[in-house]
Design goal:
heterodimer; A: 235 residues; alpha+beta; 13 strands; B: 285 residues; Immunoglobulin-like; five-stranded mixed beta sheet
Chain lengths: 235, 285
């Protein structure tokens, strides 16, 4: 009987340890909540796909969290580790409708500088190769004036259509007037419009080195919820 | 499995030993030697499909699209084929040792070993010659194929110093977490996230990275080379098949490493020129 109890206790202890590790791991790697683009009831003409329904999505980029803008909800460990780092808000898990025209409106509150790869200072994959920056239509920004990028790329699944979208988000000047939270009162406003195809799952991340550690590609650059996430085209 | 114990041989004195060939034939007539040989053949045939399974695994994303990849696949096939007899023999001895020499029951003593084959010239020569010949074959084949692949890859000479001039295409490949970009220095600043190449034209790649170490792997083209920050590595290939193929990163490079992939589209020269014009590029050299 004693032997049986020892075995039972050992098994239960093992289950608790493994389960505990799994629970902590699951909580710390929790994906941010889904942010879905909403169809606004209008349609738009496209160059190659006829007339399609139009959806919009709003995203902001903050240099750090504050009382007004809480840090991303992507696990307690990451929240503590990445305190004071830039992040996209309100989420980095994004859903857009398939076979639609989608407009993403960005509000960019962060500073910036020289981007390592000028390719990402240009707009790629938008409907007409341009974006709207503070009301003006542009194809690119200066490579030394980039704040962040929103770059969607392929997921290793050959059954889905190829998709690539990259939008440079211009920086705010270092001496820009800021509010109490330290955010520019007149942030950069960028809009990009693109056409989605069939359903598929992609990933996105920022291609401007805005993190810490080696070459500033660490920290938030390597963490979903901050400067990276998933981009799902849903039917 | 039950075993019949082989008759015990008396120790031989150096003066009255029978000839090597005779002793070798006697040794081969023993049951365990015959069994091992039979098992070797059976296991060898069972392993034979490995050759084709490996090829199928290599071709899961598509058939070779260059002579280099074809050479690589042929080498993998031949090396696997040649290694099968050795593998089969080792496994046959291993399995026979586990099964054939096992203790029958706890009441019986373990079988006595058959006398080993010592200082048998035929056996030693046969074993040495066969294994050496196989090893030499692999070495020679490998050297020839390596020379062939290096020649087809245009070696390690800088792409700018390669012969070919306008007949070749130069592509500057840049890896950056987690996107590949391809610049065409012979055009007027054309850069793309998809690699376009004309068929049957030599292509030279200058590969580098903006952040960590990546590895530029054009799967069906048989090109695989490190992309190091602060350095340029070179490789080359001549695509010989039209179609869309895969490019991946083959060096663990961070969170989205598994998603660092894109396409290489091998098109006709006319389609390539048309794409360059469409992208706003202008061939300058």
């Amino acid at each position: 009987m004693k032997k049986f109890l020892v075995i039972l206790a050992t098994v239960l202890a093992g289950v608790l340890v493994v389960g505990g590790i799994g629970a902590v791991s699951s909580i710390s790697q929790e994906e941010p909540p889904v942010l879905a683009a909403t169809l606004d009831g209008t349609t738009m003409d496209t160059p190659n796909n006829g007339t399609l329904p139009h959806a919009t999505l709003d995203l902001s980029v903050y240099p750090n969290s504050s009382d007004a803008v809480p840090p991303p909800k992507a696990g307690p460990y990451e929240s503590a580790w990445l305190s004071g780092q830039p992040f996209y808000h309100p989420s980095t898990t994004i859903q857009v409708p398939a076979n639609s025209v989608v407009t993403i409106n960005f509000t960019q509150y962060d500073s910036g500088g020289q981007i390592y790869n000028p390719f990402f200072a240009h707009v790629h994959g938008s409907m007409d190769g341009t974006m709207t920056w503070n009301g003006k239509s542009v194809k690119n920004v200066k490579s030394d004036s980039v704040g962040h990028t929103f770059t969607v790329h392929q997921y290793p699944e050959s059954s889905q259509p190829y998709f690539f979208l990259s939008v440079p988000l211009p920086m705010n000047a270092a001496n820009a007037k800021t509010d109490k939270a330290g955010y520019p009162v007149d942030p950069q406003k960028i809009s990009v419009t693109f056409v989605t195809g069939e359903a598929g799952t992609y990933v996105w991340n920022c291609e401007f080195p805005c993190g810490d550690e080696y070459q500033e590609f660490g920290g938030p650059m390597q963490t979903r919820g901050w400067m990276a996430g998933t981009f799902e085209v849903v039917a | 499995m039950t075993m019949t114990q082989a008759p015990q041989e008396q120790p031989e004195s150096p003066t009255n030993r029978p000839p090597s060939m005779h002793r070798f034939k006697n040794w081969m007539r023993r049951p365990y030697a015959r069994h091992v040989m039979i098992w070797t053949v059976v296991i060898g045939f069972l392993l034979l499909p490995l050759c084709w399974l490996l090829l199928a695994a290599m071709n899961q994303t598509g058939a070779p699209a260059s002579e280099i990849m074809q050479d690589i696949e042929t080498t993998v096939f031949v090396f696997t084929l040649v290694s099968i007899p050795i593998t089969a023999f080792v496994f046959a001895v291993l399995l026979y040792s586990l099964i054939g020499w096992k203790r029958i029951s706890s009441d019986e003593p373990p079988m006595q070993e058959n006398p080993a084959i010592f200082t048998n010239r035929i056996g030693v020569v046969l074993w040495t010659v066969v294994t050496s010949a196989l090893a030499m074959f692999l070495v020679v084949w490998g050297m020839i194929e390596l020379a062939q692949i290096t020649a087809n890859s245009y070696g390690t000479i800088s792409a700018n110093e390669q012969p070919g001039g306008n007949q070749s295409v130069i592509v500057n490949v840049t890896g950056q977490q987690w996107v590949w970009t391809f610049a065409y220095p012979q055009t007027d600043g054309l850069v793309s996230d998809i690699l376009y190449l004309p068929v049957d034209k030599p292509v030279y790649f200058n590969v580098t990275s903006k952040d960590v170490i990546h590895n530029f792997w054009a799967v069906e083209l048989g090109v695989k080379i490190d992309a190091n920050p602060g350095a340029v590595t070179t490789a080359g290939v001549t695509p010989n098949k039209l179609g869309t193929f895969n490019i991946r990163c083959a060096e663990l490079c961070g969170m989205h490493h598994a998603y660092m992939e894109t396409e290489v589209r091998v098109v006709t020269q006319e389609q390539f020129d048309s794409w360059v014009r469409e992208m706003g590029g202008r061939r300058t050299s």
